[in-house]
## 1
Amino acid sequence: MHSVAYQPRPQTVGQAFGLHETPDSLALRSSVAYVVDQNTSETLFDKNSRAVVPIASITKLMTAMVVLDSRMPLTDVIQVTDEDRDYEKYTGSRLAVGSELNREDMLHIALMASENRAAAALSRYYSGGRPGFIAAMNAKAKSLGMTDTHFENSTGLTSQNVSSARDLVKMVNAAYQYPLIRKFSTDRSYEVFTGKRNLAYNSTNALIRNSTWDIGLQKTGFINEAGECLVMQANIHGRPVVMVLLDSSGKYSRFADAGRLRTYLDTAGEPHITSADTGGGGT
């Protein structure tokens, strides 16, 4: 018998930068963690918030804003084509080529279930096509003062989509102004008809099904280079906060880290800044 060599998961960009070596008082599994008071912008927790790293599907919050800013009809039907397949990471999708959904349903499953072909198709059905859409994403980031941020596609399935936790707070605050983004991103489940069959989708965020959390907006993300990522707006003891967790190791660790931060905020008096907000390079 031939033994099969164990293939370790590739290093994340954060691991390559040594961001996981940064100590923090909560022993978080995320190498980047940043929490701010949404009303006052006061920093409540800071670990490597200036590091520029891949953000994976957190990207889709910007995708959603560009779609809604375009004011193109949400009732327009969009068809998935070969151009919407993932030719970089070769991820699969339940949304088969030929599927037809309206723009609103595409947006819904892109935000709630991180459906990549939906996000890809949305960028193609833009007035300037996909290049125009990517330009609009980067222009929107610039207008929001997101100086650490760059987008190459609408899905996040590339390590070239990068940002910092500080920029992502700006993006979450901007996205929070769109009622549809709040609604769709916090839905637990949703069913669509593709023209051929019904597909039932569920939220990618386990905390959405946890009644002890009061979440107003959320988005998850994962690619090998980014690790497990999570951004949220949540109310903790009536205080609205924005929470960013990037480059977390282990499938559920980002949710556990969110819980650790919530417990910390429940008990903390003074805001906590870790000593090692070292920044870091980006790709």
## 2
Amino acid sequence: MFIKYAQGYIVLPGGYGTCDEMFEALTLIQTKKSLRFPIVLVDKSFYSGLIEWIKNTLLANAYISESDMSLFTLVDTPEEAVEVIDNFYQKYDLKPNF
């Protein structure tokens, strides 16, 4: 239900549950089971190891495509996260429901 009404995901550092929700959202967008919305990971130092693993393992072994890397954005500040979401809705000419 989180994804059904989501207009964007801001993913803060967390554990298994956080990663589960993030990957579920990415998978549903990747497989076109959900409309695209911005997914923003906040804290480059926290997520950089995961992003490197995704590139070096999933992408390198063709488990995901290069275009799947654009399904999320990595930032450091709340202001950058808001900017990503604002830019998304300007680019796709959609209006958020909030």
## 3
Amino acid sequence: MAHAYTPGLKVLHETKVIKERRLPLKGDVLKKKNEAVSPNDIVATTDLPGNVQMVNVANLLNIGATDIADVMKIEKGSKFEKGDLLAETPGLFGLFKSKVQTPVAGTLESFSEVTGQVVLREAPIPVEMDAYISGKVQDVIPEEGVYIETDAAFIQGIFGIGGESRGNLKIITKSREDEITSDMLDSSLAGKVVVGGSHISLAIYKKALSLKIAAIVVGGFNYSDLKPILGYTLGVAITGSEDLVTSLIVTEGFGKINMGSRTFDLLKEHDGHFVSVNGATQIRAGVIRPEIVIPLKSDEISGKNKDIDASMGITDGSLIRVIRAPYFGKIGKVISLPNDLQKMESETMVRVAEVEIGGEKMVVPRANLEMVETD
């Protein structure tokens, strides 16, 4: 049987999820191996160096740069508060003194008798890394972070914006075909991960933002509506760093597309459960998909985990999703995987797959496909 390796989109009822929680700089790890954690638990902390402020004391006091050491009132390495006396001239007979005060709080790093500049370092910026999901610490990365492991239902979307969020799952549409409407959203959904059906419009998403809903999970969204939200046209860069109150995870594609039945049924099965979501997306080398992690309670674990990284790749009969135009987001089934290269409209020779989408048979480059993995 023909076979092709390709990224897979996971929709799994039970799997072993392992998340790396690593600091940007070395710091302190607060949790030990095998220790139980909750999503909001802080697992590691560090301090980012504060911003640097340059103050030209020589110019401000109208003195020569070589005289700067004589007027400094704060020693190198000393801490200070905003408005403290940084430098002062002796004046004339103790009168008519000129002064320079610190513009910020921080530490005096150095001063130069060549330029007359004083280097001030603002206070360090504390960084805390939380656990993101509930589970246990599988392993510790000394001075950097931890790996957290949990048994969970796991769903990947095709596209998302916004970073990590968490909250109780709430299904607000009756079926996967229903569009989210304004009357479905109210203040009771604040802090929750809301699941709709086929589509959410820009106006309704803005209402979700105003209500401080943690995240929206929906089948489709209009690509043209991303620019009014982000303030720029989205290219191929990674998403997830957007400063949004409400993360958005699109499970099927751009446009009005019914949420996949497997995805909707799995989410509905866990309605009311606490979930963690992340809208980060990258569709290029090193694929990153938006995700929904639903940690399972002990009585929900059957032990029949499917390895989250295991993929046999596409074969005849595989369920696939198209990830590039003109069939972006459409789901179909592989009929065959011809061995010979075929010429496409662009004149390039590529390996293709014969697929059936909505009863129509077509030929699609294998690079434009991803497998929908289910259990």
